[in-house]
Amino acid sequence: MSCRRPLFILFVPLAFCFSDCSLAPASDDESPNQTYTDPAKADVDFAVQGEYTGEIPRDEGPLKVGVQVIARGNGKFRAAFYMGGLPGDGWDKEHKYEVEGETKDGITTLGNEKGAIQIKSGKLTLLDAERNRVADLKRADRKSPTLGKKPPDGAVVLFDGASAEAFENGRIDDAGLLVQGVTSKRKFGDCSLHLEFRTPYMPAANGQGRGNSGCYLQGRYEVQILDSFGLAGKNNECGGIYTIRDPDQNMCFPPLAWQTYDIEYTAARYDAAGEKVKNAAMTVLHNGILVHDHVELPNATTAAPVAEGPDKGPLFLQDHGNPVRFRNIWLVER
């Protein structure tokens, strides 16, 4: 069928936003502590949540759109609808619309009087106000273009799955992955860092209690790690430089998907008297997309384990009580 109206007319902002809803209580029927680290053992909602993409047929030509569906526990869901495609894949960074809903009798429906999203057997269908089909979207299981990137000659390999000896308190789980809450024994100054991480699936958890960790350069400046899939993209969410700067867009993939940080870090400069004369700075690619471009870091992150100073510092991967896992960690000193 031909859609003569812009689709965003069908999806209007509700009287809430993701940032506010992240503080909402979990469902009464599912513990907020329910945590999954293996997709094969996840609840039935795990197969529904995720990313979907496709095109809306129009007289003036097809319109690319994307949808992120977020599981909230006990069959409840929230969805973000993006004009132009998913974040990092065409989204115009302006038009984002949010709806909520639930699963009944095997069909997940999210929407309002203006339109709806319906998911059944892995297929997402967009419906208009009269619940007529507008278009079908396919699941998009995206992978970072830097996933599995190999360290170049001369790189310092901190973790390749063989040993956690490069870290204080280094631990490897049964799957051969590095457990959160470790500090590198070696200390660094200017460097290029590659790191791969995976947040757990915690459908009923909220806010900072949902897949929380952090990647601290020199133990001082944190790039947040959090399951903030589908959220607004704030400095305390995935990809944010904590307390300093929001990412340019939220590139967080769904929980249990492997994600990457590729960070160019320049340490602060100090004079002979030990006074800082130039702030540290970093450029961050989250899942291959630039989210920070040479951002200055005027101060250390709140609760950073290492105070600012002229000395080199370690890579610190924070333990915030959630089973975040890491692999393929290496850096090149500059």
How is this structure best described in words?
- The protein is mostly beta strands and 334 residues long.
- The protein has 2 domains: 7-139, Lipocalin (Beta Barrel); 156-333, Sandwich (Jelly Rolls), CATH 2.60.120.
- Helix content is 1%, strand content 38%.
- The chain contains 1 helix and 22 strands.
- An 8-stranded antiparallel barrel has the order 1-2-3-4-5-6-7-8. Strands 9, 11, 13, 16, 19, 20 and 22 form a 7-stranded antiparallel beta sheet that branches.
- A hairpin with a 3-residue loop joins strand 14 and strand 15 (221-225).
- The longest helix has 4 residues, at 18-21.
- It is elongated.
- It starts with 17 loop residues before the first helix and ends with a strand.
- 45% of the residues are buried.
Secondary structure: elements and pairs:
Elements: H1 18-21, E1 50-56, E2 63-73, E3 76-83, E4 96-104, E5 107-112, E6 115-120, E7 123-127, E8 133-139, E9 156-159, E10 167-168, E11 178-179, E12 182-184, E13 191-198, E14 213-217, E15 221-225, E16 259-266, E17 269-270, E18 276-278, E19 280-286, E20 289-297, E21 316-317, E22 325-333
Antiparallel strand pairs: 1-2, 1-8, 2-3, 3-4, 4-5, 5-6, 6-7, 7-8, 9-22, 10-12, 11-22, 12-21, 13-16, 13-22, 14-15, 14-21, 16-19, 17-18, 19-20
Which descriptors apply to this entry?
elongated, disordered N terminus, mainly beta, 7-stranded antiparallel β-sheet, single chain, 334 residues, Jelly Rolls
